[in-house]
Design goal:
Elements (H helix, E strand, L loop, with lengths): L1 E5 L9 H15 L3 E7 L17 E6 L2 E6 L10 H20 L5 E5 L3 H14 L3 E5 L5 H5 L6 H17 L2 E4 L2 H9 L7 E3 L16 H7 L5 E6 L9 H12 L5 E6 L5 H10 L5 E5 L6 H7 L2 E5 L13 H7 L4 E4 L3 H9 L2 E3 L5 H13 L1 H14 L6 H18 L4
Parallel strand pairs: 1-2, 1-5, 2-4, 5-6, 6-7, 7-8, 9-10, 9-12, 10-11, 12-13, 13-14
Antiparallel strand pairs: 3-4
Helix pairs in contact: 1-15, 2-3, 7-10, 8-13, 11-14
Length: 413
């Protein structure tokens, strides 16, 4: 079985889409599939090429048995509009060309975000005459409108039309949560064409026994309560709430709480500058750290913050940060409404707060700081009820069965 996977993001990039494709594809190789991934040069989130790579027209490497074909793209930081659109369109073009040049696959998969990667999958599958699985990890154009990245009404309507055409072109649609499934069904996609295979966690990597000593010595040397956010610091993260929360704690004379923001994104520099101007020395920005250091960061943390801006669209989202925190047996402070809150509350794995509500965020963190046993109890529940249910090895097996069924239904191998 030969699988061609088109993705804008891939290892060693550490965002959720890159991690998902990497974790799935390397496990499919172990199941006997031949997997080729077409992607760009690693550069997220700043549009700067990672050390050891060059933005060439085409290059090839093998990562854990996965043939990785990197194509040229117009590089742009993860902010703004015009340059990002050029980035997306250039990948659509070069990925399509690359997809036509590889050995004929049995199935093409393309994943969002971003939107035009899905269209590359449409073009390649049509021209190679093979089934097409579309992964929907984001709803366009609503997702870009929700964070204010685009305001042109006619362009948003055009993107909506393209979105519907892309759904119609897919043999099968795979989405990452029930919330997305309900949205797709409301847009007329038949339920039998949709499968839900969520993101997950590599529990071998995110082990609660990971060494925390170096990170504790670095960020909380005096036994401060360390609340960490690990992920993209982007337009939809709503992390200005952390600055307001830190200010409230400072006004209360509390210097025993440290906010650790690990990652980079469109608003990181702005938030860091604002924190510095306001004298919020209990808020620490690390910038992007290697993925291999994440278990140590989480092991050192007393709580993990998962937060998004308060937007109706984000009620459908299930951030993958939840799974990693749960695997590390850490209590979750969740500022996301909807499906994610249902999962965390249902598992008893954390404290849910209203997104962008600094007072509630402070109350949740102080409650955990005062009652460490509560934090341990919430962490154990997350490990037992969330991490165990969202293990990437099991999810990759489910996805493999879906792939076999799609190919068999089309008369393939």
């Amino acid at each position: 079985m030969r699988i061609l996977f088109l993705t804008h993001y891939f290892h060693p990039e550490g965002n959720a889409p890159a991690t998902r494709v990497y974790e799935m594809s390397r496990r499919w190789v172990k199941l006997g599939f031949e997997v080729s991934v077409v992607t760009g040069v690693p550069n997220v989130p700043n549009g700067v090429v990672y050390p050891g790579y060059r933005n060439r027209w085409r290059s090839r490497e093998v990562i854990e048995g996965v043939e990785t074909l990197r194509v040229w793209t117009y590089l742009a930081p993860n902010k703004g509009t015009i340059r990002r659109i050029l980035n997306y369109l250039s990948f659509c073009a070069t990925a399509t060309i690359a997809g036509l040049g590889v050995r004929r696959p049995d199935l093409v998969i393309a994943t969002s975000p971003q939107f035009f990667c899905g269209w590359a999958g449409v073009f390649v599958s049509r021209l190679r005459r093979v089934p097409f699985v579309l992964e929907v990890r984001d709803l366009w154009p609503e997702s870009i409108a929700a964070v204010g990245a685009m305001r042109s009404s006619w362009l948003l309507r055009f993107l909506g039309w393209l979105e519907r055409r892309m759904y119609a072109a897919a043999t099968r649609i795979v989405t990452v949560g029930r919330g997305y499934q309900r949205e797709l069904e409301s847009r007329g996609v038949p339920a039998e064409r949709i499968a839900v295979i969520p993101n997950g966690v590599d529990r071998a990597m995110f082990d609660p026994a990971a060494d925390a000593s170096q990170m504790r010595a670095r960020f909380a040397p005096n036994r401060e309560f360390l609340c960490s956010y690990v992920g993209t610091i982007g337009m939809g993260s709503g992390l200005s709430v952390v600055l307001r929360a830190a200010e409230l704690l400072r006004d209360q004379g509390r210097r025993d709480v440290v906010w650790l923001l690990v990652g980079d994104g469109a608003v990181r520099e702005e938030l860091e500058r604002e924190a510095r101007d306001r004298g919020l020395d209990r808020v620490i920005f690390t910038g992007r750290l290697p993925k291999a250091e994440m278990p140590g960061v989480l092991a050192a943390s007393d709580a993990c913050l998962v937060h998004l801006a308060r937007r109706p669209l984000f009620r459908t989202v299930m951030p993958s940060k939840i799974f990693e925190a749960a695997a590390m047996a850490k209590p979750i402070v969740l500022g996301v409404e909807g499906f994610a809150a249902e999962v965390v509350e249902g598992a008893g794995a954390g404290i849910c707060v209203e997104p962008e509500n600094a007072e509630q965020l402070v109350a949740a963190v102080l409650r955990l700081a005062a009652d460490r046993e509560l934090g341990r109890s919430l962490g154990r529940a997350g490990q037992e009820r969330i991490a165990a249910a969202y293990d990437y090895s099991a999810l990759a097996g489910d996805y493999a069965e879906l792939i076999r069924g799609v190919v068999a239904a089309k008369g393939g191998r």
